[in-house]
Design brief:
twelve-stranded mixed β-sheet; alpha/beta; two-stranded antiparallel ribbon; Anaerobic Ribonucleotide-triphosphate Reductase Large Chain; 15 helices
Length: 459
């Protein structure tokens, strides 16, 4: 990859003044070849040794690349084969909790921030191992620090598994009650159409088709996009949609170039059998001032994020990011769009406080952006069936539109709508949002799968 001096100077400016960083380098590790999966002790020993042997130098080499290029890499992470698959021969939920603690230990020893892959794929049905893993989630996440869990509950082709959606509502309530401020729920996400090469937490796992070891990169950059639009506006050149789109495309191109450069270099340093995978183009906000998707939308002309026009503006932003980034990288994947995690985006938090951004408007916005209802806090007395209903609604958007959607929701014990709860760090501040008070329990209690849409039949 060849860079001009102009690109180098622009990248330095984005790093120093506009919050540009590489959000994560995530090393995916295959666990399918465990020689003895039925013995908990033997499986745990294999898991630790396999991950440590592959990832022990990840942080060291990532830091070396940071120093070499001056581009911050905020998180270093590991993703593993879904544990419900790799550990399918385990016998009890307690076995899965034990595996989670071993995963936490190896993540600590490798000095990574998080490890994803405490995962089950139940979109069409659940095996005994899937059910045991889901049952173990509250104990596993409450007793670990770095482990993240994800459950794929639907796909466009197979529909939605309503039985497991119902079950996960109860799991979320249980987990919320076991951890302060429902913090454990920040490490749990449920999906429709989960992707196998997602480098972002909490949904990262190493897909069974991903090979032995692969390094994926997630970029950031809302601050750089915001700054570019501010310069455009200050110069009096923000006069049309095309002006905005072309500006976002150019910035996305530069951000993605930096991401691929970093990813390929870290993969090269790790050496065989590690190969470089993909760049995820998603704009990922942080609680830092100016690093907000909400702020970008308001720069486009919205009075407050959530007002009429928000979904259209967000759709335009996501499309421009994808078009610009796709031209900059040989391998684009993951989720690739714009994240709208409420607690991690200062502009979104302010919109919730003003009353312009509601849960229902968030749901509409997720039809056009990456993922879904992310880091959304709701009152602590929200029932399990209501949580399941929120999940079903959000995942139905993904199923019908053939896109990834997800829910990461925190029912904070004792909290009421309007409360603000500081989680600190990249998790930011929870703004507790009101939930529709009418019940969906009779619907959620129906058994079976919601069928996939007719347009999923493509053969």
């Amino acid at each position: 990859m060849l860079y001009t001096m102009k690109e180098v100077h622009e990248t330095i400016r984005m790093i120093e003044a506009e919050n540009l960083d590489i959000r994560t380098v995530t090393l995916g590790v295959n666990l399918l070849d465990a020689p003895n999966r039925s013995s908990r002790e033997a499986f745990c020993e294999f898991v630790y040794n396999r991950i440590y042997s592959r990832a022990k130098h990840l942080v060291e080499f990532a830091q070396a690349v940071e120093d070499k290029y001056g581009i911050p890499i905020v998180n270093k992470r590991i993703a593993v084969t879904p544990i419900a698959i790799a550990g399918a021969a385990l016998k009890t939920p307690e076995d899965f909790v034990a595996v989670a603690r071993v995963l936490d230990k190896v993540a600590e020893d490798c000095r990574v921030d998080y490890l994803g892959g405490f995962t089950a794929l139940v979109h069409k049905g659940a095996t005994q191992a899937d059910m045991m893993l889901m049952e173990s989630i509250p104990a596993a996440l409450a007793s670990t620090h770095r482990i993240c869990s994800s459950i794929n509950l639907g796909t466009t082709k197979d529909g939605l598994n309503l039985d497991c959606i119902r079950y996960m509502g109860g799991i979320i309530v249980d987990l919320a009650n076991r951890t302060p401020n429902a913090l454990g729920c920040a490490k749990l996400v449920v999906f429709c159409n989960a992707v196998e090469d997602n480098p972002f937490i909490a949904g990262a796992f190493h897909g069974v088709g991903g090979g032995d070891v692969v390094l994926n990169v997630g970029v950031s950059g809302p601050g750089a996009v915001r700054a570019a639009l501010e310069r455009l506006k200050a110069a009096g050149n923000m006069n049309s949609i095309s002006d905005i789109v072309e500006t976002v495309k150019r910035v996305s191109f530069k951000i993605t170039r930096a991401g691929e450069l970093v990813g390929r270099e870290v993969a090269r340093m790790l050496g065989d059998p590690v190969r470089f995978g993909i760049v995820d183009l998603s704009l990922a906000p942080t609680p830092a001032m100016g690093d907000s998707i909400g702020d970008i939308l308001e720069l486009m002309g919205l009075e407050s994020t959530g007002c009429p026009g928000t979904t259209a503006a967000l759709a335009m932003l996501v499309d421009a990011v994808k078009k610009g980034g796709a031209m900059a990288a040989a391998n684009v994947g993951g989720l690739s769009g714009a994240f709208i995690p409420v607690s991690e985006d200062q502009g979104m938090i302010e919109a919730v406080k003003r009353g312009s951004l509601t849960l229902e408007k968030m749901e509409a916005m997720t039809a056009v952006c990456s993922v879904g209802l992310d880091m959304v806090a709701v009152p602590g007395d929200t029932t399990a069936s209501t949580l399941s209903g929120v999940i079903a609604d959000e995942l139905a958007i993904g199923m019908i539109n053939n896109k990834t959607t997800a829910v990461r929701i925190l029912p904070v014990p004792g909290a009421k709508a309007g409360d603000l709860i500081d989680l600190g760090g990249l998790l930011g501040t929870l703004a507790v949002m009101p939930v529709n008070r009418f019940s969906c329990q009779n619907f959620i209690n129906l058994t079976g799968n919601i069928p996939g849409p007719i347009h999923s039949i493509r053969n």
